[in-house]
Amino acid sequence: MNLSCLLCYQASPTPVCHWCEDDIFFFDATLHGSNLLQYGPVAGHVKHNQYDTLSVLGLHTWPMSSLVHQLKFTHSLTAGKVLSNWFVHKKRQCTLSVPNVLLPVPISAWRLATRHYNQATLLCESISNELGIPVNQSWAKRKGFSVQHHLSKIARAENAHRVFSLSDWCIDSEITAAQCKLNGSGFTVAIVDDVLTTGVTVNTLSKRLKQRYPKIQIQVWAAAFTPPPKSSLLQKT
Description:
The chain is an alpha/beta fold. The protein has a single domain (27-236), classed as Rossmann fold (3-Layer(aba) Sandwich), CATH 3.40.50. Helices cover 37% and strands 15% of the residues. The chain contains ten helices and six strands, in the order αααβααβααβαβαβαβ. It has helices spanning 18-22, 29-32, 40-43, 64-73, 77-90, 109-115, 119-131, 153-163, 172-177, 200-212, and strands at residues 53-59, 101-104, 140-142, 164-166, 188-196, 217-225. Strand 5, helix 10 and strand 6 (217-225) form a beta-alpha-beta unit.
């Protein structure tokens, strides 16, 4: 079988050739820490007062952004598999605890009907296959038709507050199965998304979770972080 790189389209035995992979900025636990909320160039630009830890694969700059685009808009399962495999294998030095369940950031019913899939769920399913962590796809809901990417940070916060809510049962069954107390003591979840820009969405969802389960630990996992203009991280790419 003749394979070509998803990014440069040259012949490659792997979905992404090693030349393109070498061009991608990946966060390294030994350099940036396992919890990026303790790394200023990231923590200083994302809202994070409701979740406990943050783990991101790389920067949402080319060529990583091309893979995310292929996953998000062309239903490239291969791109999703590449991103999830990288997340698992390039995070092996991470010292964060293994979560009890993966929670994909929900998309609206309208978006699901038009796109036919949730890219965060695809990432969760691939990571779940690698690590054996269960996925809960129905833990939260998103209503409405609005999108976030064109909104300011303040507008994103207002919109997220309106559109996101927890489902009736949320993670009750997972907490019961883990034999934790009703409020989730000793229970860890990982909210998974494709791109983290301002952190408003995951922070809002985390707030909803903490209100219902005050003692759970919340990690946020993302494939890519969008650095703000003039970020010091852009000098490293």
